[in-house]
Design brief:
The structure is a homodimer of 145-residue chains. With 145 residues, the first copy, chain A, is an alpha+beta fold. Chain A has a single domain, classed as Winged helix-like DNA-binding domain superfamily/Winged helix DNA-binding domain (Arc Repressor Mutant, subunit A, Orthogonal Bundle). Helices cover 35% and strands 26% of the residues of chain A. Chain A contains 5 helices and 6 strands; from the N terminus they run ααβααβββββα. In chain A, a hairpin with a 5-residue loop joins strand 4 and strand 5. Chains A and B meet through strand 5, strand 6 and helix 5 of A and strand 5, strand 6 and helix 5 of B. One zinc ion binds next to helix 5 of chain B. Chain A binds a DNA duplex (30 and 30 nucleotides) through helix 3 and helix 4.
Chain lengths: 145, 145
Amino acid sequence: MENKTERFEKLLVKNGLKRTAPRLQVLEILSGRDSATSQPYLEQVMGKDADRVTLYRVLQAFEEKGIIHKVLDQQGTANYAICSDGCSAHEHHDEHVHFNCDNCHKIYCLDTVKIPALKVPAGFKVEHLNLIATGLCANCSDKVN
Amino acid sequence: MENKTERFEKLLVKNGLKRTAPRLQVLEILSGRDSATSQPYLEQVMGKDADRVTLYRVLQAFEEKGIIHKVLDQQGTANYAICSDGCSAHEHHDEHVHFNCDNCHKIYCLDTVKIPALKVPAGFKVEHLNLIATGLCANCSDKVN
DNA sequence: CATTTTAATGCAATTATGTTGCAAATATAA
DNA sequence: TTATATTTGCAACATAATTGCATTAAAATG
Ligand SMILES: [Mn+2]
Ligand SMILES: [Mn+2]
Ligand SMILES: [Zn+2]
Ligand SMILES: [Zn+2]
């Protein structure tokens, strides 16, 4: 079985992106976490390995290519998670619900929970739906009890 | 029938807030619009009538008291709308869908569209739901046709 | 109505987040 | 190995938001 780095390199090539250190590092970090990762956290972890501007540009490129998707938490902070397969440059196919824990502040992609269709008033044309649930995640509600 | 300003003054008193010019002005502006109002717009309209910091503090106080609610648009910008009745200091009772138009960028409170209940994975405890639909609003989809 | 009390405002400084232009570096194609 | 096209880093800038503190003003009190 091919290792993670090899997979990431192929992913970059497939999307016409050059195999660079900051890009591989971002993929490394994101893939190693069980929840969406905030921009500030990424910035902190990458430290001086990459300039702040580079990080923003890496994230933007990945988002455009459908490699990651952005989720804003309740404070408006950008969080990023690796996309499920099937997302591409011009369409993200992962309209799942996101869960923002009030306690640990993690954002989980609830890949199995799809957003139900909506009946909107006449005239409105819905393109995308974005649903964020807040409350306590499985970990935190355990601890509280 | 009592006029708007009188109503606003009562609203402030009821919530233990002093009747000040910046507060009345914010209520005036918000109530005169058909969609949620962004912080930058408010700042611009109020001009030098109130310091930027005061505006932030007015909005925060109103939100805490359940007088207005905040909606983040797709860029993470804060937008504010007056709450429906029944919202209070510690509970907002207006979990309706919000619609963010891709064209005019307005955010509409779809008061009549409630967010459907969700089935989440075991362990997760949902407190609040926050659903933003994007697409074209009634006005803009008219114009396009 | 004058005075006291308490809440709210304005200002200055600071932090966080995100963007742009451009020169230098580097990954990859030739 | 060289050429090219992309990517990076740096500097400067823009905007959003927060904090501490002195001053002002609203409302409560007598
Ligand atoms: Mn997700
Ligand atoms: Mn609303
Ligand atoms: Zn949690
Ligand atoms: Zn519109």
